[in-house]
User: Fold this.
Amino acid sequence: MALSIPGLLRERVARTPDAEAMRYRDGDGWASLTWSGLQRRVAEQAFGLRELGLRKGDRVALMGRTSIDWIITDLAVLAAGGATTTIYPNSTESEVAHIIGDSGSRVVVVETDEHAGLVPDGVEVLRFGRVPGGEGDYDALVDDLRLGDLATLIYTSGTTGTPKGVELTHENWLTTAEAIASLGILEETDLHFLWLPLSHAFGKVLTMAMIAAGVPTAVDGSVERIVDNLGELRPTIVAAAPRIFEKIHGRIVAGAREKGGLTEKVFRWADREHGPATAWLADRLMYRKLRDRVGGRIRYFVSGSAPLAPEIAEFFTRAGITILEGYGLTESSAATFFNRPGMIRAGTVGPPIPGMEVKIAEDGEVLLKGPGVMRGYHNRPDATAETLVDGWLHTGDIGELDDAGRLRITDRKKELIKTSGGKYVAPARIESMINAASPYISNVIVHGDRRKYCVALVTLDEDTAGGLSGKDAEAEVGRAVEAVNAQLARHETIKRFAVLEKDFSVEDGLLTASLKPRRREIEKRFKDTLDSLY
Assistant:
């Protein structure tokens, strides 16, 4: 059994040395690396880092978009005995300084000159693709690694508070990757397309799982090229945050509405449950086109980082595309629960992966235990003791298990709203419902803690909403809110709402890197708007 991530790669090379491991952008086309070729480049960089003075336990920070060079450097740092600290490419100067300082990173590898300019004085800066190479006994390096060695420090993007460094060991990643591979979902004939940020746990655990399963990965972190890449690569496995699936659904619904007339009627007829006699026609009229737009070979989409609205999952199911929703925290190596084909239930994230245990606390909080759970928070024994109690990770999420052991996340423990009337409201569920009720809505924030009633801040999707503004925008959102209110208890209903002029973004600090709204920051920035709704 492998004792480290580089050891896992070495085992993969022994099994399938000449099979394709990675495909990456090379000018206007794609280049490819075999597993043995990938390990060779990892070994060269590992010895290059050693010659620069990197020793076991040293931290190296990586800052850049997802790329083949990011993956190679990450693996090289691990092989050299170091641990990688990840920095999201859109981080501010203060965030970069905090992560580098708190982690004690000696070297920072960056993508651009702009990134290099954010690095504090006195820290060595290298560029992706230009990390020096070297030679030596690679097996000796790998044999010196152990399961308990620190592999990664990932600073949680967090919707509130200062980011904390999550310490993840080789064992955390190894056991999680091998558990995913053991599910039998991944096949060596698959092609995995990776565009998710490798600075976060979701993208990283997927990379590790593909090594364990021997699945080739096509890498391109350009969000602007996602659609084109799907057409060019025709992948079979693609993972994304729910926002991506919402946008695909929204564009299709909005397109049908804009054309109106017969097109809209055909869409509404096609987008519903059909029996065998009419399913083929619905497929030909609409769903086949959707499958073609995403490459025509998708076996599974994987959704994570936030809850996926059941309505969105059901739409893709009708289209003949299976979305496997999963759940995990950075603190649990990202992939703790995973839906299996044949036992999917919309609204759940599936049962736990092999080796992980779950229980629901008396207050509904989801607790986790197993080899995927972090070692602790870096330099934060207080936060570690608060989060890890008797070996159980307190996730901060409220959830329930169904009769098949599948988990349903209902809300964040710290984000439950208690109105001034003493009634509890779960905002995430309502936000998801409103979002799914209109193709033009992008983000929704439900507010009402210690208030008389609940209100909402709503942003429009810049791609689908187009020229929708003013009274038209308010009328569209009003229809969605009214439809959702009809399904809610009286104390949960949205009494008033405001449509904001601009959507939230990572750049303006209102979305996390995994595209989740920073609730507290949004409420703070739009305090006057919220106050005006009461």
